[in-house]
Design goal:
With about 240 residues, the chain is an alpha+beta fold. The protein has 2 domains: about 5-60, Structural Genomics Hypothetical 15.5 Kd Protein In mrcA-pckA Intergenic Region, Chain A (Roll), CATH 3.10.290; about 65-235, Pseudouridine synthase (2-Layer Sandwich). It is about 20% helix and about 25% strand. The strands form 4 sheets. Strands 7, 8, 9, 10, 13, 14, 15, 16 and 17 form a 9-stranded mixed sheet that branches. It binds uracil.
């Protein structure tokens, strides 16, 4: 994959295993396209979004992929599983082996999951210091009070890891339904935070990550590629999606 700006001749020479001096001729023959346009100049600069094709075939792993999936219940956030359907199984096409998950959701949690083959991008999104907020809709077994919101903001102590959770926002929609914004992603974090009050989470749905809401046209199990601007905006400073 192209990870930074690269000149076309250098990239082709490496990918095709031919000397840089021969690239001019290959370009003159019109055999190379970049994003669908015949490339003529050895000086053309590629970025990580450029799709380079040689004789109408994409050059191997020349293009990073960024996918949003509406995860249904009962699907594992893993790339392989012997017993259950995985998020990868839900994607169209059969060459998805290069993809990895950008943060997991539990088996019965629904909503926005991101997948990519771009390790730089997923790292930037998941580094603890990046603090990309994740937005959840939560349904509870017992009624919630304002006391929960105060405790979530102070942080809840997890004895197993000996940590206190970062300040989290909790907004009550009605006594049995709330919105929660987390800036971290610990194991079963939301369930354990409500577990502190002995209140069981009966429904959990991730509505957005950073400024990227789950596309409302995607039915559970459906996915689509992110646009360039969505990819960029996610790693820029997070702006709250309009519905929050
Ligand atoms: N918190 C949880 O408990 N589960 C999830 O899937 C996501 C956040």
């Amino acid at each position: 994959m192209i990870t930074s700006r690269t000149r076309l001749d250098r990239y082709l020479s490496h990918q095709l295993g031919v000397p840089r001096g021969d690239i001019r001729l290959i370009l003159a023959q019109g055999r190379v396209t970049v994003d669908g346009v015949v490339a003529r100049s050895i000086h053309q600069v590629l970025d990580k979004f450029s799709l380079v094709e040689f004789d109408h075939k994409p050059l191997s792993s020349s293009r990073p992929r960024y996918i949003m999936l509406h995860k249904p219940r009962g699907v594992v956030s893993a790339t392989e599983d012997e017993r259950h359907t995985t998020v990868i199984d839900l994607l169209p096409g059969d060459d998805n082996s290069d993809l990895h998950l950008v943060g997991r959701l539990d088996f019965n949690t629904t909503g926005l999951v991101l997948l990519t083959n771009d390790g730089h991008w997923s790292r930037a999104l998941t580094l603890p210091e990046t603090k990309v907020p994740k937005y959840y809709h939560v349904c509870l077994e017992k009624p919630v009070t304002e006391e929960y919101a105060e405790a979530f903001l102070r942080g809840i102590y997890f004895s197993f890891e000996d940590v206190t959770t970062r300040p989290a926002e909790l907004t009550i929609i009605n006594p049995y339904e709330v919105k929660v914004v987390l800036e971290e992603g610990r194991y079963h974090q939301i369930k354990r935070m409500f577990g502190h009050f002995n209140n069981k989470v009966v429904g959990l749905h991730r509505e957005a990550i950073g400024n990227l809401p789950l596309d409302s046209t995607l039915l559970p199990g459906e996915s689509r590629e992110l646009t360039r601007s969505e990819v960029h905006s996610l790693t820029e400073k997070a702006v709250r999606p309009t519905s929050f």
